[in-house]
Design brief:
CATH topology of chain B: MetI-like fold
Order of helices and strands of chain B: HHHHHHHHHH
CATH architecture of the domain at 2-79 and 158-256 in chain A: 3-Layer(aba) Sandwich
Helix content of chain B: over 70%
CATH superfamily of the domain at 2-79 and 158-256 in chain A: P-loop containing nucleotide triphosphate hydrolases
Largest interface: A-B, 36 and 26 residues
Shape of chain B: globular
Number of strands of chain A: 10
Largest sheet of chain B: none
Strand order of the largest sheet of chain A: 6-7-8-3-9-10
Structural class of chain B: mainly alpha
Largest sheet of chain A: 6 strands, mixed
Radius of gyration of chain B: 24 Å
CATH superfamily of chain B: MetI-like
Number of domains of chain B: 1
CATH architecture of chain B: Orthogonal Bundle
Helix content of chain A: 25-40%
Shape of chain A: globular
CATH class of the domain at 2-79 and 158-256 in chain A: Alpha Beta
CATH topology of the domain at 2-79 and 158-256 in chain A: Rossmann fold
Oligomer: heterodimer
Radius of gyration of chain A: 21 Å
Distance between the termini of chain A: 44 Å
Number of helices of chain A: 8
Number of helices of chain B: 10
Order of helices and strands of chain A: EEEHEEEHHHEHEHEEHH
Number of strands of chain B: 0
Strand content of chain B: under 5%
């Protein structure tokens, strides 16, 4: 679905990424880890269309990607992903409102009721139905991130990009967020790219783990060479006893036979 | 307990706020009585009864020549000029400042020009305004506009640039156009910030108002002060200055309340 062909990103005096090639199928959940300054965020911003590769190309379903963010790719950042001047409901309805009126970016009457209904459902999905009329500042960090997810997913993007979305959250709260994210991932048929600095999150959450690192370093000029994908591993949740039993084809009728 | 941990309490705050004014009044009254004891005709520091008689004369008795209540007429004329000028300044500040901060190609053309414009001392072009627009209301409003708009344009531009880049990206991933981002993401967040900008620029606005009124006018608070200066009428000048101060304070207070009332989310973002 996404084809990344020999992508480089160079700035005047440094190379951030080099020789990045990757093929991603639909409905993969990719986690990205790596030391800071290893181009993870640059990579994500290229997928987002915010910055352009210096060389190489990124194809989405065979088409060359547009060089600006659009509705195909949803995003949740670590912070500032929601609009502080809109209530929770308005934040989620925002994308629908924009579609409804190109000029005013608002919806009225019936359309407004319909989109509020949709937004309400989405909020219930992420467990924020009782906070509809709050402003984001009145929510906890985790609730704000759930709001950001709801706001993005109501537009049904094909690709969801997450830049350390749970980085600022309490470890205990993160588990809840993982569960929610995995449920949404399955339900909405998304393709997910998620940067994390939490290695265990990288291993357990996704279906595929990418490690960014610099394969060569010039000690006199550390920024001469860029980072690339050094490991590309299939990963997944550690199998539980129940899932192993499920997978062994031992069923009462088989045993009886 | 350490001094920095002691809280004055409600009564303490009220008394604390009132004390400096009370002390100033006390000093004035005693200085005035000393001077008047030496020379009962002294005009520099009139006593409170003379001042209140002057207030009675200008505010609550119709003028013998025109039949108008001078004080209120001056207030209305001045506030009209001030508010018109500042409102126009804010409008210009938004219409130039928002695109300057949001759209690189717009900013490339207009941002340096605005910076240059803001270096012109507005009072230096006051004669030009009077020559071009005559000595009527328009020239005075233009001076206030000229005194406030450059600051507001730059302030708005800066505030727009300070909005987190993430928000603009996020809006684009929701398929928002440039116009929609300006209208729905940037403008509503800039409104309370420009209200704060207006609060900062009100002092300059009053300065230019009074300057314009002092030079060419037939009414207004600044006109009156400069008119009665010829007769050393401190009994009129002092209450006028106090009144101007009070009006300026109330405008500032009103704008702050406006922000609290209409933008409850403002100042709480994180």
């Amino acid at each position: 679905m996404i084809e990344i062909k020999n992508v480089w990103k160079r700035y005047l005096d440094k190379t951030v990424l080099e020789k990045v090639s990757l093929h991603v199928a639909k409905h993969e959940f990719i986690t990205i880890v790596g030391a800071s300054g290893c181009g993870k965020t640059t990579f994500l911003r290229m997928l987002l269309g915010e910055i352009e590769p210096s060389e190489g190309e990124i194809l989405i379903e065979g088409d060359r990607m547009r060089n600006e963010p659009d509705g195909d790719r949803g995003v949740v950042f670590q912070r500032y992903s929601v609009f502080p001047h809109m209530t929770v409901l308005e934040n989620v309805r925002f994308g629908l409102d924009l579609k409804h009126s190109r000029f005013l970016g608002r919806s009225f009457k019936r359309a407004r009721e319909d989109s509020s209904k949709l937004a309400g459902d989405m909020l219930a999905r992420v467990g924020l139905q009782r906070n509809q009329d709050n402003y984001p500042a009145e929510l906890s960090g985790g609730m704000q991130q759930r709001l950001a997810l709801a706001q993005t997913l109501i537009m049904t993007p094909r690709v969801l990009l997450l830049d350390e979305p749970f980085g600022a959250l309490d470890p205990g709260y993160r588990a809840d967020m993982h569960e929610l994210l995995l449920d949404l991932f399955k339900e909405l048929d998304l393709t997910v790219f998620m940067i994390t600095h939490d290695i265990s999150e990288g291993f357990s959450l996704g279906s595929r783990l990418l490690v960014f690192d610099k394969p060569r370093v010039d000690p006199h000029d550390p920024e001469l060479y860029g980072a690339t994908i050094t490991f590309d591993l299939p990963v997944g949740p550690r199998p539980t006893l129940a899932s192993i039993v499920d997978n062994i084809n031992v069923k009462p009728e088989n045993v009886a036979a | 307990m350490r001094l920095l941990n002691k809280q004055p309490g409600k009564l303490g705050f009220v008394m604390g706020a009132a004390l400096p004014f009370f002390v100033a009044l006390l000093i004035y009254v005693s200085a005035s009585s000393i001077r008047l004891a030496e020379n009962p005709n002294d005009k520099l520091l009139p006593d409170l009864s003379t001042i209140s008689a002057a207030i009675q004369r200008v505010a609550f008795e119709p003028d013998r020549r025109t039949g108008e209540y001078v004080f209120w007429q001056d207030t209305a004329a001045s506030l009209k000029r001030l508010l018109t000028g500042v409102a126009l300044g804010a409008l210009v500040g938004l219409t130039i400042g928002v695109p300057n901060g949001l759209i690189p190609w717009f900013g490339a053309f207009w941002s340096p020009a605005v910076r240059a414009l803001s270096m012109i001392p507005p009072l230096a072009i006051l004669p030009i305004l009077f020559i071009m627009f005559g000595v009527g209301e328009f020239a005075k409003v233009m001076l206030i506009l000229f005194g406030t708009a450059p600051f507001l344009m730059r302030d708005v531009e800066q505030r727009v640039r300070e909005l987190p880049r993430e928000q603009l990206i996020k809006a684009q991933t929701l398929n928002a156009s440039t116009w929609q981002i300006a209208l729905r993401v940037v403008l509503p967040q800039i409104l309370p910030r420009i209200v704060d900008g207006i609060r900062l620029t009100l002092g300059a606005a009053w300065l230019f108002l009074i300057a314009a009124e002092a030079i060419a006018s037939t009414d207004g608070l600044g006109y009156r002060i400069f008119l009665v200066r010829r007769y050393l009428a401190m009994d009129v000048i002092l209450p006028y200055v106090a009144w101007i101060t009070f009006l300026a304070f109330m405008l500032d207070f009103g704008l702050r309340q406006l922000n609290r009332r209409f933008f409850p989310w403002y100042g709480t973002e994180r």
